[in-house]
Amino acid sequence: RKEVEQDPGPFNVPEGATVAFNCTYSNSASQSFFWYRQDCRKEPKLLMSVYSSGNEDGRFTAQLNRASQYISLLIRDSKLSDSATYLCVVPDPYSSASKIIFGSGTRLSIRP
Amino acid sequence: EAGVAQSPRYKIIEKRQSVAFWCNPISGHATLYWYQQILGQGPKLLIQFQNNGVVDDSQLPKDRFSAERLKGVDSTLKIQPAKLEDSAVYLCASSSSGLAGDGGLDTQYFGPGTRLTVL
Predict the structure, then answer these.
(1) Rounded CA gap, A19 and B22, in Å?
(2) Which of A56, A107, A91 is nearest to B95 (CA)?
(3) CB–CB contacts below 8 A, A to B
(4) How does pLDDT run along chain B (119 residues), one tens digit per residue?
(5) For a surface tag, which of A45, A75, B28, B54 has the fewest beta carbons within 10 Å of its beta carbon?
(6) How far apart are CA A73 and CA B100, in angstroms?
(7) Is A35 helix (H, G, I), strand (E, B) or coil?
(8) Interface contact flag, B111 A43, Cβ < 8 Å
């Protein structure tokens, strides 16, 4: 099993819709998780951190399910500008430094 | 505040040639990372520096890749000789301390990357 797995998509949804995608991780010792956003041909940028059961920031909600070892990202009232690749990130729990492991990303496309 | 700077932005070389990338992290950031991102995949850590020391280079193909951060500020990544499968975007990132603790983790800030094409 890969350390971090994501549905690659693409998810193609109309503007205004709600969309959610999951990320599963293999190591139960992982304590904190992140979602990064990467626009086409741009660098990744931190979107949200998840340290406990979940986190909400405006239209974005990240939830953590430790029992099933997955985190999810929910986007409400989607905008055209939300079109991007969303990367799930899990810290390497065996690293004494700040090594993080990226998933392959989920592509999201919002249509007018 | 200036972000992470990288150069060049694009590079096209033939296989077996050499290439070098440069990165200047955010001022004051002690930790610097080099990632390789192949099309359709997430970034993969190649090497991590804490000041001028290597913290993790377990995924760096040391037979052809090398990196240095001599004065603990900017860094160079070199590939010699390049192979076709090295075609990717090479991302540099930095964080203030990089030290993990209590579940917290310093945010990594990425540069725009260098897109390498090996023909």
Answers:
(1) 39
(2) A91
(3) 63
(4) 689 999 999 999 999 999 999 999 999 999 999 999 999 999 999 999 998 899 999 999 999 999 999 888 999 999 999 999 999 999 999 998 755 444 456 788 999 999 999 99
(5) B28
(6) 24
(7) strand
(8) yes
What is the DSSP secondary structure assignment for residue B107, as one 8-state letter?
Answer: P
Total residue count of chain A as it appears in this document: 112
B15 C-beta neighbours (distance < 10 Å), count = 13
Q: Is some CB atom of chain B closer than 8 A to the CB atom of A53?
A: no
Helix (H) or strand (E) holding A46: strand A44-50
Q: How far apart are CA B90 and CA B111, in angstroms?
A: 9
Residue A51: its H or E element:
none
CA distance A33 to A39: 20
